[in-house]
Amino acid sequence: MESYKFIFSLLFTISIFGRGFFAYEIDTYDFLMPNVWPNQDELYLCTPIRIAPQKNFYVVGFKPNASMHTAHHMLVYGCSQPGSNESVWSCGEMQSNEIDDRYNTASPCKSGSQIVYAWARDAPRLEMPPEVGFLIGHDSPIKYLVLQVHYMMKFPEGKTDNSGVLLEYTTERMPRQAGVFLLGTSGVIAPNKVEHMETACTINENKVIHPFAFRPHTHALGTEVSGFVVRRSPKGDMWQLLGSQNPQRPQMFYPVANQAPIAQGDVLAARCVMNNTNMYPVQIGATNKDEMCNFYLMYWVQDDTPLAQKYCFSPGPPYYYWSRAPQNFDRIPDRDFNVI
Question: Which domains does the chain have, with CATH numbers?
C-alpha cells in the first residue's frame, strides 16, 4: 500500500507576498522527516510526498528546519517516481552491504531524478527571485518530492528526528521556471596534497538559462569551490566567474557574481580545491570520512522548461583536469584563484 503524503490539496498557512510588482498568495507545507530513528552511523534516510496530480504548483521558497549538529546535509529531489513505496527508506548514494532490519534500501528516485534544493552547515532560508518558481504537479515531470537527510551519527534508543524543509508554494503561474544544474567529480585526493578537482560540460540544448544562485558543497578538506561559464570563440575562451566560496562557511545558495544569460554552446565548469593533510588518500564518497566536490547552479528560464540535462560529473583526479578535457580549453584560470 502506498503511504505517500498528498500535498498541495489543502491550504496551509496563507500570506500575501509582494515581490516587486508581482503579488500572489503563498502557502506553506512542512516537509519533515516523520520522527525517524537513525539507527546507525552515516545513514541516509528518504521520505516522499506525492503532488496532487490535477494542478500545477510553484515552489518559491525553502525554509530549513534542521541543525548541522543533527543533519550533515539535506537534499530535496524531484522525481517522476520515488525510489520506494515506503514512508521512509534508506537511500544512501553508496549503499552498505550490511542488512538493516529497520529500513529498506532504495535510491531517492526510481525515475526522473533531479535536485530541487540542497542545504548544509546551518544555511539560512532561500527565496526565489520575482516570478521564479519550481514547477511541480500536472504539467511537470516532478510528480513527487523526496526529502533526503544524511545523519552522520546513530541516535540513542528512543530519540527521533523531524528535520526537514518548510516549502513555500503558490498556484499562481510563474513565468520563469527554476532549475538546478549540479556539477561534481569523482576521484581521489592523494595524501599530504592540495588537489584541484575539476569538471566541465557543454550546454547542447537550444535554451537560454539565467543563473541567479550557486551553492558549494564539500566535506572537511574543501577550501574553495568555484564555478564558471566558458564562452567559446575563435579568438579564445572567455572564463566568467559564476561564484566562488569557502565551503566551510554555511553551505547556502549565494547570489551569483554574473547573471549574464547562458546559451547553447557555452560550457559550465567547476573546480574544488582540496587540502588533504592526512597521511592517507581520501576518495569521493557518501560518508563524512570521504569527500565530495559539488557546485550547484540555480537558474531560471523565461516561458520555457528547464534543461533536460541536470548533472555534469567528471572522473576527477588523477584522470581528469580541465587541461585534459575534450573541449580543449585555453586561458584556464590560474590555480591560485582566490575566494573573495
Answer: 5-174 (2.60.120.310), 178-324 (2.60.120.230)
CA 149 from chain centre, in angstroms, equals 12
pLDDT of residue 14: 35
Of the candidates 191, 238, 120, 169, the residue with the CA atom closest to the CA atom of residue 13: 169
Confirm whether 150 is a catalytic residue.
yes
- Let me know: does 225 contact 216? Beta carbons within 8 Å: yes
Residue 69 annotated as catalytic? no
- Assess whether pLDDT exceeds 60 at residue 98: no
Residue 116 is given by DSSP the state E
CA–CA gap between residue 281 and residue 28 (Å, rounded): 45
Of the candidates 74, 114, 128, 217, the residue annotated as catalytic is 217
Q: How confident is the model at residue 97 (pLDDT cuts 50, 70, 90)?
A: very low
The active-site residue out of 33, 73, 177, 274 is 73
Q: 138 an active-site residue? A: no
d(CA 153, CA 72): 9
At 17 the pLDDT is 41
Find the catalytic residue in 33, 74, 128, 150.
150
Task: State which amino acid sits at residue 72.
Answer: H
Q: Which three cell numbers stand for residue 67?
A: 541543525
Residues 6+ apart with CB under 8 A from 152: 41, 42, 72, 288
* pTM given for the model: 0.91
**Strand 144-151, strand 73-79: pairing:** antiparallel
148, 177, 245, 251: which one is catalytic? 148
In whole numbers, what is the pLDDT of the chain averaged over residues? 91
Q: Are 64 and 21 in contact (CB under 8 A)?
A: no
Chain centroid to Cα 53, Å, comes to 24
302, 175 contact by CB (below 8 A): yes
Which of 39-43, 154-158, 206-210, 286-290 has the least mean pLDDT?
A: 286-290
Active-site residue, from 33, 72, 128, 245: 72
Q: Which of 140, 132, 134 is nearest to 58 (CA)?
A: 134
Q: How confident is the model at residue 18 (pLDDT cuts 50, 70, 90)?
A: very low
Is 73 assigned a catalytic role? Answer: yes
Q: Active-site residue 148, yes or no?
A: yes
